[in-house]
Structure formats: structure tokens, C-alpha cells
């Protein structure tokens, strides 16, 4: 298994068996999650392009 850590790449050997199966499922889930996030970003960009320019668009705050 290889993963990025700040400033470098770390590799860890995972022996065959349940632990490797778990890692492979987690990697597959991450790839699906990443693809969905990319789709959301793409759709959001398209929405922003077609939205009219007005002051009435609500601003969402993360307070």
C-alpha cells in the first residue's frame, strides 16, 4: 500500500488476507468518493455559470 504524507510518499506492505481485503475495499471506496466529489465540483461550476448576477443570491456561511 502506498499513500502520500506531507512532503513524501510512504509505502507499507500489507500481507494477503483480511487486512489486505479491507485496505482494497477502502481504496475502492475512496476512489468512488473522489469521483463523486469531482462530479459535484463540475456541476457546481456549471450552476455558477448559468446563475444570474444579482444581490439576492444567499451567502452560506460556515460559522
Write structural notes for this entry:
- With 63 residues, this protein is an alpha+beta fold.
- The chain has a domain at 17-50.
- The chain contains 1 helix and 2 strands, in the order ββα.
- It has a two-stranded antiparallel ribbon.
- The chain is elongated, with a radius of gyration of 19 Å.
- The relative contact order is 0.08.
- The mean pLDDT is 87.
List its traits:
alpha+beta; two-stranded antiparallel ribbon
Provide the residue-averaged pLDDT.
87
Distance between the termini: 38 Å
| SSE sequence, one letter per element | EEH
Number of strands: 2
Please give the radius of gyration in angstroms: 19 Å
In this structure, how is the largest beta sheet organized?
2 strands, antiparallel
What's the arrangement of strands in the largest beta sheet? 1-2
The rough form would be described as: elongated
Number of helix segments? Answer: 1
Q: Which percent range describes the beta-strand content?
A: 5-15%
Low-confidence blocks of residues: none
* Helix-strand makeup class: alpha+beta
Residues in helix, %: 40-55%
Amino acid at each position: 500500500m502506498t499513500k502520500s504524507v506531507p512532503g513524501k510518499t510512504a509505502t507499507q506492505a500489507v500481507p494477503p488476507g483480511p487486512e489486505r481485503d479491507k485496505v482494497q475495499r477502502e481504496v475502492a471506496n475512496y476512489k468512488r468518493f473522489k469521483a463523486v466529489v469531482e462530479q459535484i465540483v463540475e456541476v457546481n461550476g456549471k450552476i455558477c455559470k448559468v446563475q444570474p448576477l444579482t444581490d439576492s443570491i444567499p451567502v452560506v456561511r460556515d460559522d
